[in-house]
């Protein structure tokens, strides 16, 4: 596994976050809805939550992002985007496993969404024990209930 660290995002990371999302998701978004740059920029401005976002660091380089929303009952992982040159090195698995352990300790349910056409991400989440259910025409909802 590639060594990495996480650091809390700042407002200065907004452009990096957008570029990572664009790099990782553009091919899927084009296939489903078509890519509209103006719409995507506006959507990002309205939905970038700096206080819930961390930047993945590998060898002192920004390598990806993860956004996590927590409440008393659940941990919701979103925006787990790893740049292509850092993918398939265990980073996404390690990040998910860290949050799975946290959910077990805190007796919470862990949840996420994944695009139906993103088979690689689905494969990862299934391997980690997430249950897949349909959410809508384009996404699956996945969860692992650890509230035992």
Tell me about this structure.
- By secondary structure, this protein is of the alpha+beta class.
- It has one domain: 3-Layer(aba) Sandwich (Aminopeptidase).
- Helices cover 36% and strands 32% of the residues.
- It has helices at residues 14-32, 37-47, 91-105, 119-127; strands at residues 5-8, 53-58, 61-70, 74-82, 109-115, 131-134, 139-145.
- The protein has a 7-stranded mixed sheet with strand order 1-2-3-4-5-7-6, with helices on both faces.
- A hairpin with a 3-residue loop joins strand 3 and strand 4 (74-82).
- The longest helix is centred in the first third of the chain and has 19 residues, at 14-32.
- The chain is globular.
- The mean pLDDT is 95.
Question: What structural class do you assign from the helix and strand content?
Answer: alpha+beta
Write the CATH fold name.
Aminopeptidase
The first-to-last residue Cα distance is 30 Å
The total domain count is 1
Number of strands: 7
Q: Which geometry do the CA atoms define?
A: globular
- Major sheet strand order: 1-2-3-4-5-7-6
Low confidence ranges: none
Task: Please provide the ordered H/E string of secondary-structure elements.
Answer: EHHEEEHEHEE
| Overall helicity | 25-40%
Count of alpha/pi helices: 4
CATH class: Alpha Beta
Beta-strand share of residues = 25-35%
| Biggest sheet statistics | 7 strands, mixed
The overall pLDDT average reads 95
Would you identify the CATH architecture?
3-Layer(aba) Sandwich
Identify the CATH homologous superfamily.
Gcn5-related N-acetyltransferase (GNAT)
* Alpha carbon gyration radius: 15 Å
């Amino acid at each position: 596994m590639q060594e990495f660290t996480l650091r809390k995002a700042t407002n200065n990371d907004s452009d990096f976050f957008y570029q990572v999302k664009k790099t990782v998701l553009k091919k899927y978004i084009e296939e489903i809805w078509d890519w509209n740059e103006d719409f995507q920029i506006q959507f990002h401005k309205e939905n970038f939550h700096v206080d819930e976002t961390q930047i993945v660091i590998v060898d002192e380089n920004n390598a990806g992002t993860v956004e996590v929303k927590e409440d008393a009952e659940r941990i919701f992982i979103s925006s787990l985007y790893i740049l292509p040159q850092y993918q398939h090195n265990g980073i996404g698995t390690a990040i998910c496993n860290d949050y799975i352990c946290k959910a077990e300790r805190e007796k919470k349910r862990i949840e996420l969404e994944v695009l139906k056409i993103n088979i690689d991400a689905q494969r990862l989440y299934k391997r980690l024990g997430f249950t897949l259910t349909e959410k809508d025409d384009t996404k699956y909802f996945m969860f692992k209930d650890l509230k035992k």
